[in-house]
Amino acid sequence: MAAPAVPYRPPATPADGAHLYLPAAQRLGDTGSCRAAGGWHPDRTPASGYPSSASSSPPAPRPRTCPIGLDRPRILATAASPSAQRPCGRCDRPADSVHRAEPGLSALPTARPPPPPPAGRPCRRPAGERQQRGQPSRSCLIWSLTITAGFAGMFSYSRTILHSRRVILALARQALLSRFAGTGAGMLWTVFQPLAMVAAYWLVFTYGFRVTAPDGQPFAVYFVTGLLPWTFLSEALAAATGTVTRNSFLVRKIQFPSEVLPLVEILGASFPHVIFFVLTLLVLLGHGILPGIWIWQLLYAYFALAAFALGLGLALSAFNVFHRDVAQSITPVLNVWFWLTPIVWSLDMLPPTWRSLAALNPMTHIVEAYRAALLYGHPVWQPTLHVIAFWLITLTLLFCGYRSFMRLKSEFADVV
Q: Rounded to two decimals, what is the model's pTM?
């Protein structure tokens, strides 16, 4: 026997606006929407089986509370409070459409667009991210963090050098002895090599090209004072570039600070530099030139030259581990760099525009500092442009070289 048919009874229409205040569990249901809960929805019309509201006039503004959140009820949006928050039941329809569908409720207010930037001063950032008065700009913060990290890195590197000073000196002595090991002349090659270089250039430029020094000095004196720092740089860079690959047995040791290896090669090149300095003094005395009281500036010139060579050596030694072409390219680059440095020629030969451009060459300041201490007898901080350009480039090289070396240091043992 079939069950008696139950006539369809549509659910009673709630009071006007009361659908907004149904409990959250009834509104959300299983699917998180008002339709899934089986409750009345403002979009359902009598054509779909739901009777419309019997009231034809808008309801009186009645703020109600919603039980969602239990002990934290919220005031829902009504006609009396159009700027209130959206209805709490996470309905699948926007709150604005619910307000438009229900008589007596206005649409939720829309956000105002950000004000346009002032004329003539376009702002690329949104209005909410613009710099407020009294706050540092983003570029200032980046520069301050970069400078702070640079000083912190240099302090850490200086502390490592101080703790490993005995190891550094022992390795520098060993590198110098191994350089001339097995030769008959031994350490005398540190005298023969610069002496042969000076003699060759002196014969070519003095008797071949008939070149005279631009300031009236003998060409041999002018040339040897400029060649003195250049030989140190070329030997230090050539040795520091391959120092990590040559000392692979030390790099594989966990406790060994491999970042001191470029400094070891620079100290190893200092002994031939001292020998060349003695030869330079002999050349000056042979031409009747005696250095004055400004000779103490050689300490500054040597320190500046060593700092510049250390920054380049740190970067080149790290890159040469992964790209062996770096070591092969050092010689041709140094040959071109030699002629771009005022060793044979003088800055007075250039027009003022090119003279300022030549100041960007760090070796320009070094060569002029050696000549100021040995030949001219004036302070090394003249001209000031060369000093500022040199130290900006040198400090940047030290910072970038140290950061590059420390970032690639963990992969050295797997490659060498």
A: 0.65
Same domain, 92 and 230: no
pLDDT, one tens digit per residue, over 190-219 is: 778 888 888 888 888 777 777 777 767 788
- Of 345, 348, 355, 227, the closest CA to residue 279 belongs to 227
Tokens of 234: 């070329």
Residue 405's closest CA among 262, 234, 255? 262
Peptide bond into 118 cis (omega under 30): no
Work out how many domains the chain is built from and give that number: 2
Q: Tokens 């956000």 map to which residue?
A: 111
Q: Which DSSP string do the residues of 15-42 spell out, in sequence order? A: PTTGGGGS-HHHHHTTTTSTTTTT---T
Q: In sequence order, which residues have a C-beta less than 8 Å from that of residue 215 and are 6 or more positions away?
A: 222, 346, 348
Whether 278 is in a domain gets the answer yes
Residues 384 and 308 in one domain: yes
Q: Express each pLDDT in 389-398 by its tens digit.
A: 899 999 999 9
Instruction: Kindly report the backbone phi and psi dihedral angles of residue 150, in degrees, each rounded to the nearest multiple of 5, phi listed first.
Output: -65, -45
